[in-house]
Amino acid sequence: MPSLPRKIIHVDMDAFYASVEQRDDPSLRGKPVVVAWRGARSVVCAASYEARTFGVRSAMPAVRAERLCPQAVFVPPDFVRYKAVSRQVREIFARHTDLIEPLSLDEAYLDVSTLRTGLPSATATAEAIRAAIREETGLTASAGVAPNKFLAKIASDWRKPDGLFVIRPAQVEAFLAPLPVGRLPGVGKVMEARLTELGIATVGDLRLRPEHELEQRFGRWGRRLHELSLGIDEHPVQPDRPTLQVSAEDTFATDLKLAELEPHIRRLAEKTWAAHEREAQGEHGRLARTVVLKLKTADFHTLTRSVTPATRPGSAAELADIACALRDRIDRPADARYRLVGVGLAGFVEADSFAAQQDLFGSLAPG
């Protein structure tokens, strides 16, 4: 017997950081607000809709944002406040379902297939959530309702800002057909260009291609493309997405040579180790085994090196030592310069599982 379609809501706060700033400082309302530190090395964290009309976007260099919109009001980010508002919003979500998958501070998936608040539908639930957010936080959110996650995410963007859009199961294929293939998750500019070369511009074009042809060209990703073209996505909402990596990184005021990075690596290792300790002491008690070093060159190329040592690092100092050893594996000219360095820990395992493995290998060691 086929399973019933899921009822998924994707909620996305509107220009979240900038909207919090405008809410808390009435003088900013109606003005082009850019949440970013000023300076040649800074990037835009968020832009109000007034700033977006000038082409300002998140992740854009702050200096470019200033050129596009000279009258913009720059506000330094205050993540403590943003996290507090995010917690308020998640409390509203939790009134309606336990199946909440946060993607960031300002967006989340909710599975409301089983309604528990007496509301008649997923659409009514989305409307109630948006109304509560407006009343309790003074902010607006957009929402999409659909039978699966990827469609709900597309839908939440359909009537931004402060909008609601619903894609019902019977509407899925007709809704998708005219969309550019670039609207599908995982189809970036490179893949979109490759599909365009094959004469595939829309999701409808993609749907007409036999699955075996797509799989022959793109491997397993080809099969996934075929499923997406039909609106198929079986990925469930995951309330407890495990931490994949903890890390800290820093962008320098001036580019540095490789030999100058050690004090920065050691400082960042301290931050990363503190985050790892919080993870280890959390509800699931998870430990990381893999050390990751990230570098960004002066011309914006990202380099990463990683290693899983036989004995996992036991302190911030050991983590820093391993990260510095990874730095020595960078095969580039000595005078090459770097604008960013990051230190991370990955490869998390449950602490109990890790201890059991250690006991096992210890018992097998020769006496």
Automatic annotation (TrEMBL):
Keywords: Cytoplasm, DNA damage, DNA repair, DNA replication, DNA-binding, DNA-directed DNA polymerase, Magnesium, Metal-binding, Mutator protein, Nucleotidyltransferase, Transferase. GO terms for cellular component: cytosol. It holds the Pfam family IMS_HHH_1. It is found in: Cytoplasm. One of its GO terms (molecular function) is damaged DNA binding. CDD domains: PolY_Pol_IV_kappa. Its cofactor is Mg(2+). The active site is at 107. PANTHER family: DNA POLYMERASE KAPPA (PTHR11076:SF33), DNA REPAIR POLYMERASE UMUC / TRANSFERASE FAMILY MEMBER (PTHR11076). This is DNA polymerase IV. It comes from Dyella soli.
